[in-house]
Amino acid sequence: MHNPYQPEPAKIVSISRQTSSVKLFRFEFAQNIPGWKFSYQPGQFVELSLPGFGEAPFAPCGGIKEKYIELCVRNVGKLTARLHAMKVGDRVAVRGPYGNGAWPAGKYDFKVQKNLFIAVGGLGLAPLRSLLLGKNYFLGKDTKVQIFYGARNPQEMLFRHEYENWKKLKIKMELTIDKEHAGWKGHTGLVTTLFDKCDVLQNSVAFLVGPPVMYKPVLERLKKLGFADEDIYLSLERRMHCAVGACQHCAVGSYYTCKDGPVFSWAQIKNIPDAI
């Protein structure tokens, strides 16, 4: 039986560059158990470790229940710099998954009840990719999905070569970049400017993932549109550290982000100081 506290050896089987500082890694596990697959829910996370370089939390962003796992990694520190220098065939260790896996929120029957509105910034699209790839499995084929996605420039947009395929899944994307850029014909401005330029999908649950500075202005827009606190969900994955509630680095009020999150409804955390 898989032990989520025991790191599993995994081998890099593919690497693709997403941006100047972000790479998408696919890791294949060495399990020889018949029928074994690495199972997780969108919203959960894993810990990747390298001897001598430490470990760090990452949100899986690929297919569900596979022999492999995909992680989108930005080169920002000692461990990630080492990982970016590695090649296909090199090995790492992965433990998990952890967290509540609340994308989508369990109380909703998306097949008959709700649509899905997503607001993301920068690297925030990564943890939602597994949900989008499994749209029909998690949401139902008739669920409408709308994404507001903001990045610094077109080259910083994740998975941009997949957008045409996502459109075939009836996922509507509205894109914006922070400042004017040569050749860019889309929207310009922060992700909040899209609320002034595009109609938000009605009868929706809202998912927010991105830098903390994005949350408050997006929340204000959603509340003006009549979204209930219970229908707005935010990821606090940036607070992750040990993954098992020991270090208390991720404490938010009475919650541990690694155990009770990383996804919370706004109703749960809106009265907690400095939650976002």
Concise summary:
This protein has 276 residues and is of the alpha/beta class.
Main attributes of the structure:
276 residues, alpha/beta, Elongation Factor Tu (Ef-tu), domain 3, Rossmann fold, 2 domains, seven-stranded mixed β-sheet, 15 strands
The assigned structural class equals alpha/beta
> What is the approximate shape?
globular
Order of helices and strands: EEEEEHEEHHEHEEHEHEEEHEH
Q: Please, what is the CATH homologous superfamily of the largest domain?
A: Nucleotide-binding domain of ferredoxin-NADP reductase (FNR) module
Main β-sheet description:
7 strands, mixed
- How widely separated are the two ends? 37 Å
Quaternary organization: single chain
**CATH architecture assignment of the largest domain:** 3-Layer(aba) Sandwich
Main CATH class of the largest domain: Alpha Beta
Chain-averaged pLDDT: 88
- Whole-angstrom Rg: 18 Å
Indicate how many domains the architecture comprises: 2
Walkthrough of the structure:
By secondary structure, the protein is of the alpha/beta class. The protein folds into two domains: 8-98, Translation factors (Elongation Factor Tu (Ef-tu), domain 3, Beta Barrel), CATH 2.40.30; 115-269, Rossmann fold. Helices cover 18% and strands 30% of the residues. The protein contains eight helices and 15 strands. A seven-stranded mixed sheet has the order 10-9-8-7-11-12-15, sandwiched between helices. It is globular and about 50 Å long.
